[in-house]
Amino acid sequence: MKFSFQNLWKAIEELLFPRRCPVCDGIVQPRGELICPGCAKKLRPIEAPWCAICGRNLARGGELCEDCGKGKMHAFRRARALYEYRSVRSSIYRFKYGGRREYKDFFGEQMAKYLGSFIRSVSPDGIVPVPLHPKRLRKRGYNQAKELADVLGAHLGLPVYDKILSRVKYTAPLRRQNSKERQNNLKKAFLVKQNDVKLKTIILIDDIYTTGATVDEAAMALREGGAENVYVVTLSVG
């Protein structure tokens, strides 16, 4: 192996700060892997059939979920998710609030592996992560959506644009709100920083798709700014 200070630093970093498994949060065994082999089996990827619009798993088959089947309108064209939320709930909580930034490497790699074909099929100009409000970003230290977008973009060779969209409205935590409350809370929460978005087809990245309110508002802002097609990719769907 060709010697490099980068490889040396990675070896030292792994020795001093061993990688944590995104499922069990223990030190990954064997060393050098991104997840414990046994823990990988506990994750539940979304399997067909899924909703042709929002990407939810369809337990009873068909083409559309109950919401989309009733004519619920979205600002994005289609959405896809990697995991069922229940199987990664604890992992996402640590990823967002517990400082486990390193989880991005495994999750981003898996998103590229399983959702890469869908992403390539729409020929995107780039990836845009759903932004955090500056107050929340300062408290958390990083935006988990951007972390996922950076790894995904690196694997697929797509540029990441994290300066186009900003979150200008500070909202209360959404996890205890119903669909209508989320929708009202998020109105005008996002703003395109540039007068004209040069990207015509965008992949919008977030960690969780619940009711779709967050990505709908973000997609609407991007479309009002000039984007023609917005597709959504999330780590999980609840």
What does this structure look like?
- Strands 1-6-5-2 form a four-stranded parallel beta sheet, sandwiched between helices. Strands 3-4 form a two-stranded antiparallel sheet.
- The model has no long low-confidence stretch (mean pLDDT 90).
- The longest helix is centred in the middle third of the chain and has 19 residues, at 103-121.
- 38% of the residues lie in helices and 14% in strands.
- It has helices spanning 5-16, 37-40, 66-69, 85-97, 103-121, 134-140, 144-156, 179-185, 213-224, and strands at 79-84, 126-129, 165-167, 190-192, 201-209, 229-237.
Topology:
Blueprint (H helix, E strand, L loop, with lengths): L4 H12 L20 H4 L25 H4 L9 E6 H13 L5 H19 L4 E4 L4 H7 L3 H13 L8 E3 L11 H7 L4 E3 L8 E9 L3 H12 L4 E9 L1
Parallel strand pairs: 1-6, 2-5, 5-6
Antiparallel strand pairs: 3-4
Helix pairs in contact: 5-7
Summarize the structure.
The radius of gyration is 18 Å and the shape is globular. It has helices at about 5-15, 35-40, 65-70, 85-95, 105-120, 135-140, 145-155, 180-185, 215-225; strands at about 80-85, 125-130, 165, 190, 200-210, 230-235. It is α/β, with parallel strands linked by helices.
Estimated share of beta-strand residues:
5-15%
Unreliable segments (pLDDT under 50, ≥5 consecutive)?
A: none
CATH C-level of the domain at 80-237 = Alpha Beta
User: CATH fold name of the domain at 80-237, please?
Assistant: Rossmann fold
Strand order, largest beta sheet: 1-6-5-2
Largest sheet: 4 strands, parallel
Helical proportion, percent range: 25-40%
Number of helical segments with 4 or more residues: 9
Report Rg: 18 Å
| Helix-and-strand structural type | alpha/beta
